[in-house]
Specification:
The chain has about 240 residues and is α+β, with helices and mostly antiparallel strands. Helix content is about 15%, strand content about 25%. It has a single domain, classed as Protocatechuate 3,4-Dioxygenase, subunit A (Sandwich). Strand 6 and strand 7 form a beta hairpin.
């Protein structure tokens, strides 16, 4: 293991072992009231309002698991705002992690990684780190990410990957989807409109057809963007 890898492993171990009180101090501002921060260069047009499609966050059920895909990188980059200046419609994601096997008890001090494509459908690779980040849940099992609505790519439904580390040995991996009608309206705005969007960005993906009912976020307007909340249930 390289010195750099050892440093990352050590930091994650410290964060996950810190306990709920220590984690709350290490990640001040992770949860609780926070104003929205839009991504740089976001469109001047008002965001389209959701039409009501998309599922509500389940109160306490096991999250449908999915593969991490080819673009996961353990950057150990602890931060709430992951935009790094990437332009797009701002999106705030509020997550609560609960332990289903323990009566849906909120899980404190769990590491949560998120990563997704930018408005052009590209992931950060090599030395770049945009639209990737880690948070540690507070005493109520909550954390917040500020990002943008992801763009589409390949034949897959637009999505946000996430991975939950309840401790240093286990993890749960899945992905969130977005209501298709809202995606089409967002993709008519810049910078998304630089590429013609698929007629049906979700329905062409077998993974969406299998898990979309449980893993599609219910978005609501939030300033010049959107926000959504979801309860992630792990075993």
């Amino acid at each position: 293991m390289s010195e750099k890898d050892a440093s990352r492993t050590s930091r994650r171990t410290v964060l996950l072992a810190a306990g709920s009180a220590g984690a709350a101090l290490l990640t001040a501002g992770c949860s609780g009231p926070a104003g929205t921060r839009g991504a740089a260069g976001q469109p001047s047009a008002s965001p389209p309002r959701p039409s009501g499609s998309g599922s509500s966050s389940p109160a306490c059920v096991l999250t449908t698991e999915a593969g991490a895909g080819p673009y996961y990188v353990d950057l150990d980059r602890v931060r709430s705002d992951i935009t790094e200046g990437r332009s797009g419609v701002p999106f705030r994601l509020d997550l609560t992690v609960v332990r289903v096997s323990a009566g849906c008890r909120p899980l404190a001090a769990a590491g949560v990684d998120v990563w997704h494509a930018d408005a052009s459908g590209a992931y950060s690779t090599g030395g770049s780190t945009f639209l990737r980040g880690t948070q540690v849940t507070d005493g109520a099992g909550r954390c917040v990410f500020r990002t943008i609505v992801p763009g589409w790519y390949a034949g897959l439904a637009p999505h946000i990957h996430f991975k939950v580390h309840p401790d240093t040995r286990t993890e749960t991996t899945s992905q969130f989807f977005f209501p298709e009608d809202l995606l089409l309206k967002v993709y008519a705005l810049q910078p998304y409109a630089r590429r013609p969007a698929p007629e049906h960005p979700n329905r062409r993906d077998s993974r969406y057809r299998a898990a979309g009912a449980a893993m599609t976020l219910a978005l609501s307007p939030d300033g010049d963007g959107y926000r959504a909340a979801y309860t992630v249930g792990i075993a």
